[in-house]
Amino acid sequence: MSANKRTAEYVSACLLGGAVGDALGAPVEFMSLAQIQKQFGPEGISDYAAAYGRKGAITDDTQMSLFTAEGLVLSHVRGKPSDTAQIPLFVYQAYLRWLSTQQMQPSDTLLRQHGSCVMVDGILITRKELCSRRAPGNSCLSALQSGRMGSMADPVNNSKGCGGVMRIAPVGYFMKAESVFDTACEIAAITHGHPTGYLAAGCLAQIICEISYGKDIHSATGKSMEILKTKSHHEECLQAIRNALETIETEPVSFASVEKLGKGWIAEEALAIGLYCALAAREDFEKAVCLAVNHSGDSDSTGAIAGNIMGAMYGKEVLPEKYLRELELRDLIREMASDLSERMPKQ
Ligand SMILES: [Mg+2]
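Above: query sequence and magnesium ion SMILES. Below: predicted holo structure tokens.
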């Protein structure tokens, strides 16, 4: 077994890698592959293009990953570190603060509903740059606006959009391996009530976790599938992962192979595409994220997932400077990763 990757540097690489994939995919999120190739050439997009008024702009995927991390950290600062059952509540409260940055409701409504201690906490709510709508997912918005915290036992909707899985990577580091899958599912179920919507999140968090303990991506995926098979309604998610693994074995690495895995708007497809691209690219980070964003679907979310896995696996050395240099909120992402790593169990 190779080196333990539960270090501040790897946590940072995982979160930055996700943000880079997100930012690269942002300008092409709503374009078909043909449209992307028409605008950027046959190789597709491989450098940042302007989105939301700048190059290197992050989107809701990175915003929500940061709030996931903040909720995890605050569960230790405000709560009892040994009580893992309380963690989803702290993350829910962090997501409510994210909701307030989206300016969908007057902030005094949220203050009245949830209390000032919930709405004024952490560091993210103080950052004006986060008060920006970057094509937030409807399930996340409507679930959080409902005022009710969704859970696996009491689903808030029947959504299996990719909004649960695209924000979940920080959970892979925050607790011991045996608690990661279920906690990630519970956190995804805050906004996504369909089993596939939260099981895909459980899988990605477990993959990140297994990688952090020294497994390669294939073995980490195998372990994640083993746990997945023990859960109710796992078939759809399992099939999507199998499709990704089979495509690696049987098809040439190409945009066409990615297109066959789906569009990534739904959770199991986003996971399959992100995983496929990380596996197909081996140690080449740029190849992984370029493959993950050049398709006819949710390019920023699949880019974020591929980037998370690549950063977790190979560390900061593989993150190209050309992407880091112009990445929005790069320092805040590093700061949050550092906070998270100080509180993660090292063994
Ligand atoms: Mg997005």
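The chain has 18 helices and no strands.
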